[in-house]
């Protein structure tokens, strides 16, 4: 029956690309639980899957269900920060598991600062860099890194000139597909600029968010 056969605990020695050893091969990843806003797992030479987790002070989930078969005894992962901890689960996928390749994406971190002495609205932007142009966007995840704003509204304009917006609030959200706004295969160039309107940013504070754009070829 579906479920966990074994698990691997990790504590990241540093941010960025690292290698984890598996206990058997072949083996199927069926879920993950981890601290921070995302965990990257390399799918192939072009794609990295970024499993989205929670915003600042969000709700932890026992396991984010995914599924992906690994043939070798090692996998390449991308840690968000040094000291990030978590558990990878292996076994037989559950019925609600998402193919890891569906989380193939690009990441951008956007920060806005309020240098004033009272709360103020701030606008900031960042640019996604994709491996090639003419990709199809399948979703956007918004993840806050702090509680320095009341709420955020992010937006971008599609290649067809249409506006897409999303809403972000601290203390709300659970990991996996629940934090992803699904998109209807929106075509994009190799770069895409997204704007974040940050409302009531605290005085003398910086507000930072992570957005992940998911795509397919």
Characterize the main sheet: 5 strands, mixed
DSSP strand content:
over 45%
Distance from first to last alpha carbon: 33 Å
CATH topology (level 3) name of the largest domain = Jelly Rolls
Numbering strands along the chain, what is their spatial order in the largest sheet? 1-8-3-6-9
Uncertain runs are: none
Secondary structure: number of strands: 17
Structural class: mainly beta
Q: List the total number of helices.
A: 0
CATH hierarchy: architecture of the largest domain: Sandwich
The percent range for helix content is under 10%
> Overall 3D geometry?
globular
Order of helices and strands: EEEEEEEEEEEEEEEEE
Mean pLDDT: 94
Architecture overview:
This protein is mostly beta strands and 217 residues long. The chain has two domains: 3-102, Jelly Rolls, CATH 2.60.120; 105-216, Sandwich (Jelly Rolls). Helices cover 0% and strands 60% of the residues. The chain is built from no helices and 17 strands. The chain has strands at residues 3-11, 16-21, 27-34, 38-42, 48-52, 64-70, 74-79, 85-92, 98-99, 105-114, 120-129, 135-144, 151-157, 163-168, 180-188, 191-201, 205-216. The strands form four sheets. Strands 1-8-3-6-9 form a five-stranded mixed β-sheet, with no helix packed on it. The radius of gyration is 18 Å and the shape is globular. The mean pLDDT is 94.
């Amino acid at each position: 029956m579906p479920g966990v056969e074994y698990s691997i605990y990790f504590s990241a020695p540093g941010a960025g690309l690292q290698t984890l050893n598996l206990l058997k091969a072949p083996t199927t990843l069926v879920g993950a639980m981890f601290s921070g806003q995302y965990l990257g797992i390399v799918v192939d030479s072009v794609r990295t899957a970024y499993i989205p987790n929670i915003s600042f002070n969000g709700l932890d989930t026992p396991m984010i269900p995914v599924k992906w078969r690994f043939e070798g005894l090692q996998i390449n992962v991308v840690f968000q920060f040094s000291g990030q901890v978590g558990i990878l689960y292996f076994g037989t996928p559950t019925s609600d598991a998402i193919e890891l390749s569906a989380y193939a994406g690009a990441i951008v971190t956007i920060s806005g600062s309020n240098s004033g002495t009272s709360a103020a609205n701030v606008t900031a932007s960042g640019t996604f860099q994709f491996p090639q142009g003419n990709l199809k966007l399948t979703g956007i995840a918004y993840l806050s890194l702090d509680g320095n704003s009341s709420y955020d509204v992010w937006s971008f304009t599609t290649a067809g000139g249409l506006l897409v917006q999303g809403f972000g609030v601290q203390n709300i959200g659970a990991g996996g597909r629940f934090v992803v706004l699904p998109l209807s295969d929106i075509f994009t160039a190799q770069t895409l600029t997204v704007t974040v309107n940050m409302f009531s940013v605290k005085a003398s504070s910086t507000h930072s968010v992570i957005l992940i754009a998911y795509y397919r070829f």
